[in-house]
């Protein structure tokens, strides 16, 4: 039994059959809570079919195919050569510890039931960038936009979209993300919030849905103040728009 946004960048929540000892979506092992409930999700580039597999205590295996509907991503072809990334050695010396800290925060595996909640908007305002959009430079694809950009104006407070544990709160600005917050919602699901001007939480802190995390800003690499909100489930990048209802 499962339900959710069964599409690329989407997710599902389900109930495993009685007697399930382990379950997976494709190759990804699922975390089962005490009632056998689980969360799973589909990467932006997920194939059109997947499979939920439950292994039961009596040795049986239950397989459920899952259709994952394709999305029509906003792809812009431009007749300009892709800029060489040109990351200098000096930059990478600064960057690598940041990447390591982000990896540790994204894979922290905190005990939280936030994944069971219906998410709320961390902040409302103009949507200035969508998840999955991508530029192709003379046939060479650039990396796609990995989050949802919301631009309510500098200094607007943003809140936790669901319960979780703060696994990163960058008081020193990261080179690209600026003041960055990562919240672990449990079961492999986590949110990142970029470019904050101020941070109100500390690492290890438990936060409740709706609790203030920081203020929208323009720290790191950005052209103007906005909140970049990205969601991941293990290695899969997800579309935040599929976690929240229409903007209130
Ligand atoms: Zn963004």
From TrEMBL:
A GO molecular function term, named singly, is: metalloendopeptidase activity
What highest taxon heads this organism's lineage? Bacteria
CDD domains documented for this protein: M23_peptidase
Q: Which Gene3D superfamilies match?
A: Glucose Permease (Domain IIA) (2.70.70.10)
Instruction: Offer one Pfam family short name for this entry.
Output: Peptidase_M23
The M23ase beta-sheet core domain sits at: 144-240
The record's section on PANTHER family has: M23 FAMILY METALLOPEPTIDASE (PTHR21666:SF285), PEPTIDASE-RELATED (PTHR21666)
For this entry, the protein name equals: Peptidase
Origin species, per record, is Aurantiacibacter atlanticus
């Amino acid at each position: 039994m499962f339900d959710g946004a069964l599409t690329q960048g989407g997710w599902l929540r389900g109930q495993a059959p009685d007697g399930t000892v382990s379950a997976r979506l494709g190759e990804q092992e699922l975390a089962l809570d005490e009632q056998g409930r689980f969360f799973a999700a589909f990467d932006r580039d997920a194939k059109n079919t997947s499979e939920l597999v439950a292994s039961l205590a009596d040795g049986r295996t239950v397989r459920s195919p899952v259709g994952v509907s394709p999305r029509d991503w906003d792809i812009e072809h431009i007749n300009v050569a892709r800029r060489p990334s040109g990351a200098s050695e000096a930059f990478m010396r600064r960057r690598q510890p940041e990447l390591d800290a982000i990896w540790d925060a994204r894979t922290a595996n905190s005990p939280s039931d936030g994944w069971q909640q219906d998410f709320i908007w961390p902040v409302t305002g103009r949507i200035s960038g969508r998840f999955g959009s991508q530029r192709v430079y003379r046939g060479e694809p650039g990396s796609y936009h990995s989050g949802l950009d919301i631009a309510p104006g500098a200094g607007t407070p943003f809140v936790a979209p669901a319960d979780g544990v703060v696994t990163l709160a960058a008081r020193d600005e990261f080179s690209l993300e600026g003041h960055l917050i990562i919240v672990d919602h449990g079961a492999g699901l986590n949110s990142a919030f970029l470019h904050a001007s101020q941070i109100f939480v500390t690492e290890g802190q438990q936060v409740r849905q709706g609790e203030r995390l920081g203020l929208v800003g323009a720290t790191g690499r950005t052209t103007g103040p906005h909140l970049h909100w990205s969601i991941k489930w293990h290695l899969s990048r997800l579309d935040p728009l599929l976690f929240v209802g229409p903007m209130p």
